[in-house]
C-alpha cells in the first residue's frame, strides 16, 4: 500500500461550526454534535434546560460573555463551585486562543466552538459514567486520562480549543482505473457524484497528528478521514464497482454511477443515495435513509431511523425497530419484505401491479384504500393473491397502509 498525498491549502471559509472531541462512545470515538440533531432538553431528561438554538440564532447572538453565561445556565446540574471551575477554565482557554489568534474576533472565536447545550450534555454524560464506574473507566483501578469537573476529559477540552485555533485545510487528488473506494470517518460528511475521472477533495481543520490518510492498492482506494475532517467530496467514474462507507455521525449524500454498489454503516448520520442497477446495503442506528433509483436490490437495517425507498426494481428488505418506513413504486415482480416494531409502514404499488400481499399489525391499524385489494374496512391483517412478486409488510404496534 502506498500513500497518496494531495495538495494542502489553508482556506478562510468555515465548513463547520463545531469542534471535534465533543462526545466519546465506548470505543473511544468522538463524533461531533450536529445542529440538525439537537440535544434533548429539560430536567426530566437530565440534560440542558433549553434546546440548542439554530446556527443562525447562535451565531447572531453569542459573544464571549453570552457564551459563558449560557454555558453556566446549561450546567445547572453541577454544584456552584464546579460550575465556577468549568467557566473559569473555559474563559482561560478562550483568552489563550485569542492571544494566539489575534486575527480572530471574539464573535469569530465563539463561532468555532460547540453550542453550550452540547457541551453541557457532554459534562452530564461523563458525570453519569463516572458515577456508574466509580471513576474507573476500565475496571482495573486506573484511569487513562486526567479527568476534570463532573468527569470531563481535560485532553478533550484542549483538543476542542486547538480546533478553534486552526485554519481550514484541504487535500485533493485524481486517479484513473478506480474500482473500489473505502471511506472511514468519524463525523465527516460525504458527497459523491458520477464523472469521467475519479477525484477527491477533503476539507477540515486537522493537525499533523489527525491529517486524513489516503492509500491506494491497484484499483482500490481507502480514505480515512480522521477526527478533524469536515467534508469529503468524491467524483466517481463508471469503472467503480463498489463504494464502502463507515461513519459515526457523518451524513452521506451519494449519487452513484450506473451499476455501482453501495455498502454503508452509520451510527447517527443520515444517508441519501441515488443510483441505477447497483445493490445497496445500509446499516444504521438512528440515521434516516433515503434511496432513489433503479437499484437491483436494497437491504436496510436500522434501529430508529426513518426509511424511504423509491424506484427500486429489485428485491427490497427493510428491518427497523421504531422508524417509519415508506416504499414507493413496487412492481408486480418484486419481492418486498418490511418489518418494524413500532414504526408505521406505507407501501405504494405501481399502477396495475398485482403482487401477492400480506400486510399485518399486532396492535396497529392495517388499511388498503386502493382498488387492488378493495376498499375494505380497517383490520389487523390484509391478504391478497397475485404474483409473481410478493409484498410482506409487518408492524407490531405501528400502522400499515397499502396504496
List the main descriptive attributes of the protein structure presented here.
13-stranded mixed β-sheet; single chain; 26 strands; 403 residues; alpha/beta; disordered N terminus
What's the story with the biggest beta sheet?
13 strands, mixed
Count of extended strands: 26
Uncertain regions: pLDDT < 50 for 5+ in a row? Answer: 1-56, 135-152, 371-377
The structure class reads alpha/beta
Query: What is the rounded distance between the termini?
Result: 52 Å
Helix content: 10-25%
What is the typical, i.e. mean, pLDDT?
Answer: 76
Side-by-side strand order of the widest sheet: 1-7-8-4-10-12-14-16-18-20-25-22-24
Radius of gyration: 24 Å
State which percent range the strand residues make up: 25-35%
Count of helix runs: 6
- The best one-word shape is flat
Amino acid at each position: 500500500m502506498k500513500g497518496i498525498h494531495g495538495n494542502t491549502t489553508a482556506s478562510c471559509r468555515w465548513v463547520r461550526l463545531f469542534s471535534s472531541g465533543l462526545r466519546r462512545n465506548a470505543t473511544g470515538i468522538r463524533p461531533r454534535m450536529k445542529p440538525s440533531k439537537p440535544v434533548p432538553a429539560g430536567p426530566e431528561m437530565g440534560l440542558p434546560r433549553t434546546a440548542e438554538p439554530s446556527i443562525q440564532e447562535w451565531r447572531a447572538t453569542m459573544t464571549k460573555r453570552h457564551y459563558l453565561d449560557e454555558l453556566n445556565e446549561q450546567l445547572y446540574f453541577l454544584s456552584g463551585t464546579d460550575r465556577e471551575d468549568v467557566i473559569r477554565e473555559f474563559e482561560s482557554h478562550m483568552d489563550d486562543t485569542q492571544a494566539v489568534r489575534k486575527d480572530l474576533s471574539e464573535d469569530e472565536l465563539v463561532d468555532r466552538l460547540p453550542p453550550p447545550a452540547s457541551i453541557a450534555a457532554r459534562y452530564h454524560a461523563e458525570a453519569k459514567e463516572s458515577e456508574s464506574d466509580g471513576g474507573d473507566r476500565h475496571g482495573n483501578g486506573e484511569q487513562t486520562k486526567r479527568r476534570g469537573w463532573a468527569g470531563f476529559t481535560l485532553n478533550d477540552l484542549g483538543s476542542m480549543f486547538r480546533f478553534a485555533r486552526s485554519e481550514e485545510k484541504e487535500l485533493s487528488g485524481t486517479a484513473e482505473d478506480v474500482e473500489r473506494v473505502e471511506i472511514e470517518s468519524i463525523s465527516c460528511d460525504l458527497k459523491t457524484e458520477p464523472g469521467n475521472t475519479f477525484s477527491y477533495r477533503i476539507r477540515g481543520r486537522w493537525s499533523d497528528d489527525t491529517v486524513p490518510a489516503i492509500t491506494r492498492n491497484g484499483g482500490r482506494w481507502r480514505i480515512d478521514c480522521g477526527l478533524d475532517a469536515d467534508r469529503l467530496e468524491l467524483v466517481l467514474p463508471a469503472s467503480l464497482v463498489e463504494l464502502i462507507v463507515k461513519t459515526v455521525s457523518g451524513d452521506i449524500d451519494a449519487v452513484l454511477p450506473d451499476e455501482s454498489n453501495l455498502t454503508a454503516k452509520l451510527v447517527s448520520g443520515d444517508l441519501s443515495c441515488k443510483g441505477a442497477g447497483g445493490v445497496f446495503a445500509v446499516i444504521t442506528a438512528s440515521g434516516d435513509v433515503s434511496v432513489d433509483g433503479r437499484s437491483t436490490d436494497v437491504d436496510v437495517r436500522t434501529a430508529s431511523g426513518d426509511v424511504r425507498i423509491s424506484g427500486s426494481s429489485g428485491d427490497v428488505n427493510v428491518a427497523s425497530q421504531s422508524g417509519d418506513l415508506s416504499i414507493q413504486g413496487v412492481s408486480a415482480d418484486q419481492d418486498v419484505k418490511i418489518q418494524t416494531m413500532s414504526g408505521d409502514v406505507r407501501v405504494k404499488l405501481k399502477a396495475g401491479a398485482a403482487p401477492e400481499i400480506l400486510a399485518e399489525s399486532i396492535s396497529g391499524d392495517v388499511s388498503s384504500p386502493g382498488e387492488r385489494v378493495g376498499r375494505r374496512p380497517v383490520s389487523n391483517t390484509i391478504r391478497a393473491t397475485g404474483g409473481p412478486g410478493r409484498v410482506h409488510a409487518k408492524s407490531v404496534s405501528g400502522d400499515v397502509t397499502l396504496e
